[in-house]
Amino acid sequence: MVTAAMLATGCGVKRVPDSIIEKLPYEARIDLLEAENDLAIAVDKLDETRNEVQRTKEQIRRAKDRLSGARGEVGSAADPTSREVAELAVTEGEARLDWLRARQEVNGEEEKLADMALTCAIARFEQAKLETARKKKIEGSEALDPADFEGQVKQCEEKYAAARGEAKNVSAQAEEVKNKWEGAKSALAKKTFDARASPYVE
Fold it and tell me: Do residues 189 and 103 make contact, with C-beta atoms less than 8 angstroms apart?
């Protein structure tokens, strides 16, 4: 079932009054299951994107600690080879941090998209409720204009499509940053004979 928490998102979405939906016969409510399931999926997606933001935030914290350690190694290097490895580790650490920050920007875009997708799912759910109520000739449903509900779905989906385009641009930029980090990581791995156990190379 759709909970109040699910519907907390989507402020400004025109709703079908509960007093109308409560009058729907059981068999008519089954017609709403598909739209209700889509809504539940949208809620899960939003939760997933928010969790990813938190995971990346923790990865950024660890990357900063790792970079600090690498910089310390530069000053304490006992020989030129050790110093070169430490400097490569700093370069890799800086590139890693840049990549994680770029990825967090992508995560932010994904969270915004998921939030918008949930709003659209709510709008479609409300449209489905009105269509079902009018089909069953539920008292009060005739006073609601189907065009209003159709229009808010269309408007939401248009905004979502535009936001997806912006998110793609952010993702493309992040991919360039990732490639730079991959290059720095490969250089460090090569210098350390592919020492994957190194604290600077995952």
Answer: no
How many Å apart are CA 182 and CA 102, to the nearest integer?
14
pLDDT by residue for the chain (202 residues), tens digit each? Answer: 455 545 556 668 999 999 999 999 988 889 899 999 999 999 999 999 999 999 999 999 999 999 999 999 998 888 998 899 899 999 999 999 999 999 999 999 999 999 999 999 999 999 999 999 999 999 999 999 999 999 999 999 999 999 999 999 999 999 999 999 999 999 998 888 765 434 444 4
Rounded to the nearest 5 percent, the helix, strand and coil shares of the chain are: 80, 0, 20
| 202: in domain | no
Cβ-Cβ contacts under 8 Å for 75 (sequence gap 6 or more): none
CATH number at residue 184: 1.10.287
Q: Which of 68, 54, 59, 55 is nearest to 99 (CA)?
A: 59
